[in-house]
Amino acid sequence: MIPGVRFTVNNPVARIVRRARSNFFWAFVFLNRPRREAIFAAYAFARHTDDLVDEAPSPKIADENLLQWRRELQACYEGRATHPITIALAQTLSRFPIPKVYFDRLIEGVEMDLSHHRYPTFESLYAYCYRVASVVGLICIEIFGYKSPLTRDYAERLGIALQLTNIMRDVGEDAERGRIYLPQNELKRFGCSENDVLGRKQTEAFSNLMRFQAQRARRYYRGARMALPSTDRSSMFAAETMGRIYFRLLDRIEGRKFRVLNERVTVPTLFKVSVAVRHFLTSRVSR
């Protein structure tokens, strides 16, 4: 059983979290109960938002889903939540006053998947990564608690690093949906054609392109580490756990010579558990 979540049959937050036995779960399992429940509610909101688009039978229905979900978010902030997920989120907001704009940006990011299947430059991709990943980090730090406003910069940079790693891992799966999240000008620079990516052909040009993406992701991991103020390091142990797990995922992607078009690279559960325990214990000692 996942601590802090009541697994009733009709509890959608519990169902979503139970499916998320993933990098996310192990990063947050050692939070105290109020923060853990708050994180799970925020995660359920994000996951459900994503599902409203990915599981919709048509773009038109996906648009309608998001419109209704925006109304439900507004109702949540006005104390009128009706969906089980936003009811749980409302309970979170009573403890942790998370700015509504973060959830608005998250919905905007998911909405981009309906119309943006290509990104001409990294700058345009950054805007997407910020909305679907960095704002999640900004939501999380409101729950973790922080003293320095510089920690928001840490959350933004770490979110970009995590999303760039996700993009590298999921290139093949995204290609099946006709999506390419690698900047078009960089495909051209390395001589990698869209047809090769969509056809899931492992070429030397693709490997060189991915090596370049990995170098960029590493710069964002470094930037996040440098941006984290020492005053907030212990309270960010869950975020640091997530960062370490994804950094290991990046190592494994590189170790497999970027063969991600036809196989999914993962991190062993034992590694995730050991990282989570280590960061939690370190945070306890440093307080």
Question: What order do the helices and strands come in, and which of them pair?
Answer:
Blueprint: H1 12-19, H2 23-28, H3 33-54, H4 59-77, H5 84-95, H6 100-115, H7 122-144, H8 150-169, H9 171-176, H10 184-189, H11 194-198, H12 204-227, H13 237-255, H14 269-286
Helix pairs in contact: 1-3, 3-4, 3-5, 3-6, 3-7, 4-5, 4-6, 6-7, 7-8, 8-12, 8-13, 12-13, 13-14
List keywords for this structure.
287 residues; Farnesyl Diphosphate Synthase; 0% strand; 14 helices; mainly alpha; 2 domains; single chain; globular
Class of secondary structure makeup? mainly alpha
Order of SSEs, N→C? HHHHHHHHHHHHHH
Count of DSSP E strands? Answer: 0
Can you tell me the overall shape?
globular
Give the proportion of residues in helices: over 70%
Low-confidence stretches: 1-10
Mean pLDDT: 91
Beta-strand fraction estimate: under 5%
- Total of domains: 2
Task: Give the helix tally.
Answer: 14
Please report the distance between the alpha carbons of the first and last residues. Answer: 29 Å
CATH class of the largest domain: Mainly Alpha
Q: Regarding quaternary structure, how should these chains be classified?
A: single chain
Radius of gyration: 19 Å
From the 3D structure, determine the CATH topology of the largest domain.
Farnesyl Diphosphate Synthase
Biggest pleated-sheet summary = none
Using the 3D structure, state the CATH architecture of the largest domain: Orthogonal Bundle
- Provide the CATH superfamily of the largest domain: Farnesyl Diphosphate Synthase
